[in-house]
TrEMBL record:
InterPro entries: DUF6457. Pfam families: DUF6457. This is DUF6457 domain-containing protein. Residues 8-89 form the DUF6457 domain.
Length: 95
């Protein structure tokens, strides 16, 4: 496990640019604010651990549906809508 200090908020753009480039993506195509909004809504409406997994699923769905900005926005809107209407009484696995 790394003992490195967490990334300071002001370094977020540098990190995302470096990661996007390393992954062969254009950093300008990353809707940072939109994805952070999805993560926030999921973390508050569902559970904190669901936030990073949900943003991954948004990206995966967008990529499989064409990968355009509109595809990202559509997947993010669906995730946000579901998170904002999620109730704690949803069926749980094993119940």
């Amino acid at each position: 496990m790394s003992t490195q200090a967490p990334l300071p908020p002001e370094a977020l753009d540098d990190w995302l640019s470096a990661l996007a480039t390393a992954l062969g993506l254009d950093p300008a195509d990353i809707p940072v604010a939109l994805l952070l909004d999805v993560a926030r809504d999921v973390a508050h409406g569902v559970a904190r651990p669901a936030a990073p997994l949900s943003t991954f699923l948004v990206g995966l769905a967008a990529a499989r549906n064409g990968g355009t900005a509109a595809d990202i926005e559509r997947a993010a809107a669906l995730a946000t809508e579901l998170a904002l209407t999620w109730a704690g009484d949803q069926p749980q696995a094993g119940r």
